[in-house]
Amino acid sequence: MEKNIGERIRLLRQALKLTQREFASNIGIGEKTLRNYESGKFAPKEAVIKTIEQTFNVNPEWLRHGRGEMFLKKEEPARDPFEAAAEAVIDAIMEKRDIKLSPAKKKKVVKKLAELMKQIGEKEAIDLIDLAI
Fold it and tell me: How many domains does the chain fold into?
């Protein structure tokens, strides 16, 4: 039987040797939300999936469809979790409000939001993400 995305998220978290709390914190969601994804109760939104892929260097084909290797082969270090979360928030807002930004403008907005999220702290940043997504 093919595994669903929630089961693959659980496998990823276990491969990374992270608790649910640590994993959820890294991608800017609540621990309960992660439990719901892993149990298959709810499917993650596209912005959350992208954040997981970017934060942990996960192969999108593996995460979404169970094909290929779990991780991408990449020389560069993993992305700053605040930057990945900020991009997910911006993507969600752009989608909800049908806003179009050039890649350069989006990059600037993501950078500023990531800086703000670092300044306000992890808990407040998670609350901000939950509001946007």
Answer: 1
